[in-house]
């Protein structure tokens, strides 16, 4: 394929809440290094991690100016060499941005070939844009809960895209899930995908309901994306020896810890981050996982897409997503998505 002289990208100039923090620019291509691939971006997703990154609050802070966005789909149009990169050439991929340098809110992105997953031609590139971060995290955490011997799970922010995936994966493994949400429309969204146990954390008897149900189902692991007081409330209500895996901080609040909970109830609190989990896995595990992702992509790992915005309107896309995250993912699409 003949590349254009330049390509469009959204460039972040400052980490802040400021609406003008990012602008659309023209960028020049740089030569590829061995092991890298050039991807023509089809669809880029917006996740809570992107919102935190733009504000400078995420676990990764890149040197500015930089193109933001961590997750996308596209076609590999060039390889810098290396067996896997060369294999990916011409293939549809789900991909993530490199730990350093430009991300996915652009017409093109360079990343490590091992940050790409070939998705075949059966899955749409729009679903492919959401097939990496949330699905792998959901699969990895449910597996971890099984390793801890949990018969059932509790999860907070359960109506999120990832929460719905946990419902699907756990059901396949025969694990029950107690889904904690905070709004009636989230209860309805979960009922619609067949979730059986749904509790609203705003209800006056929430803690009692959770105590009874988690003891009955032997739900001894919680997957928590909210943090703050909710984490403590949930862990306190769960059975003796339960464990909470905190993987998100949507409340942006600290978790108040009660020493007695740790000492007398043997409760445990730990974190999960995909960025540290993936490099710890063997190539065989990643290969097995990519098969699992493809097999579950159309049902258990399907993501609801709420809206699509052209790259020129990336700032509006980010605002639209942040205003209502339960509705579904918002995609940023360069002209490639319109067949141009
Ligand atoms: N650690 C990792 O490696 C990793 C990887 C992937 C994802 N994550 C985390 O997974 C979580 C879900 O991501 P996603 O992409 O699935 O999200 P999403 O689809 O955008 O949905 C976010 C959900 O969280 C709810 N929410 C927001 N603030 C909340 C709060 N303070 N209390 C309770 N609920 C709240 C939203 O509902 P409202 O309408 O009520 O706001 C919405 O239903 C995020 O925290 C993300 O950072 C972590």
UniProtKB/TrEMBL annotation:
Key word Nuclease present: no
CDD domains in alphabetical order: ETR_like_1
Alphabetical UniProt keywords: NADP, Oxidoreductase
SMART domains on file: PKS_ER (SM00829)
GO molecular function: NADPH binding; oxidoreductase activity, acting on NAD(P)H
SUPFAM superfamilies linked: GroES-like, NAD(P)-binding Rossmann-fold domains
NADP is among the record's keywords: yes
InterPro entries assigned to the protein according to its UniProt record, in alphabetical order: ADH-like_C (IPR013149), ADH-like_N (IPR013154), ER (IPR020843), GroES-like_sf (IPR011032), NAD(P)-bd_dom_sf (IPR036291)
Database matches in Pfam families: ADH_N, ADH_zinc_N
Signal sequence interval, chain numbering: none
Enoyl reductase (ER) domain boundaries: 17-332
Designated name of the protein: Alcohol dehydrogenase
Organism, as annotated: Leptospira gomenensis
Classification lineage: Bacteria, Pseudomonadati, Spirochaetota, Spirochaetia, Leptospirales
